[in-house]
Amino acid sequence: MFCCLPSKEKRIQITNTEVVEEKPSAEKVYLRKEYMGSTTAVEKWKRDTPPSHFIFMIRSFSQLSQSGIQKLESGVFQACDKKWKLCVHYDKGGKKADGEDDDGRISLYLQIVETESLPRGWEVHAKFNFFVYDQINDNYLTIQDGGGKVRRFHYMKTKWGLDELLPLSTFTNPSNGYLVDDTCAFGAEVFVLPNSTKRECHSIMVNKDPENNIHTWKVSGFSSIKTESVNSNEFFIQGIKWILRLYPKGHSTAKGQSLSLYLALTAAEDANNSPNTKLYAKYKFRICNQLNTQHHETSCLERVFDDPKGPSYGMQKCMPLKMLESTSGGFLVNDTLVVEVEFLLLSKVSDF
């Protein structure tokens, strides 16, 4: 058991926990409550077995109202490898705005704590039961929030519970056994669902100005290239370093038939290119017509680049060699070829 002694402080913390085997009773009463304009399905039943995870005893309970304390927090306890605490709220009631009497209530909340060690973007999905000890019958009123609904705890919502665990008149009625000799006890059981969800965040990086998303490469002395492939100089798009790789006579199955063109991610000093970051790119190639605007464009390509030392991605059959080498085509002028890559979408892909 855990004891909370009266104090001049507005908040009192308790520190111990108790774990016992759960053996719930089959006897249940299903209720539906309305409070503060919201409807909450609450399941209640009595059982003999104590809470499996935590019991929070409060002595001299009447001093809460006398000292003006409205909230009492337990110490931290552990359940399902997570840290939690109970928050008991006491509302003595009074007159409502419409003049009717408000008898007051006991509220109880479960809060996840010490979340600093949890990973970025953490979420905990849990079911929980609350308990109020009946000291006359030596059993526990068991209260299940939302009929066993799974609650989602996260950094913006660390606390869930019941605005009205019990009406104050029910709680303080001696015949109910919840408050005896100015002493009461609350409890909690928490059951965390395993979370195997993979989370991925895309951070869009392409600039709205199209000119900043295009890289142009002039390949001079095209006919004199003796190697199977040639690389462009490195270039940056949105802080990411890339190269273009050109196969003048084609690559693989397109060899001798088509110009082949590829895009490759290269090693970068920029932090955006860290080993743990993937890059999603949607792009297309363009072989520029130097005599008119009838450029030759490829269809859009979509690839994930995750390794600067990894493969390049592009098109084996970027442009037929017969079209490229045509003297009237306008694509090869003064032995110079002009190619472009245009990024339609570029985003960082990271887990969270």
CATH fold call of the largest domain? Apoptosis, Tumor Necrosis Factor Receptor Associated Protein 2, Chain A
Instruction: State the CATH superfamily name of the largest domain.
Output: Apoptosis, Tumor Necrosis Factor Receptor Associated Protein 2, Chain A
Question: What is the oligomer described by this structure?
Answer: single chain
The poorly predicted ranges are 1-39, 268-274
Count of helix runs: 3
Strand content: over 45%
Shape verdict: rod-shaped
Considering DSSP H and I runs of 4 or more, what fraction of the residues is helical? under 10%
Largest sheet: 8 strands, mixed
What separation lies between the terminal Cα atoms? 40 Å
Structural summary, described in words:
The structure is a single chain. With 352 residues, this protein is mainly beta. The protein folds into two domains: 3-192, Apoptosis, Tumor Necrosis Factor Receptor Associated Protein 2, Chain A; 201-351, Apoptosis, Tumor Necrosis Factor Receptor Associated Protein 2, Chain A (Sandwich). Helices cover 4% and strands 48% of the residues. It has three helices and 27 strands. The protein has helices at residues 63-67, 168-172, 321-325; strands at 3-4, 29-35, 38-47, 54-58, 71-73, 77-79, 82-91, 94-95, 101-102, 105-113, 123-134, 139-145, 151-154, 159-167, 184-192, 200-204, 214-219, 230-231, 235-237, 240-247, 258-265, 278-287, 296-297, 301-305, 313-320, 332-333, 336-351. The longest helix is centred in the N-terminal third of the chain and has 5 residues, at 63-67. The protein starts with a strand and ends with a strand. Residues 1-39 and 268-274 have low confidence and may be disordered.
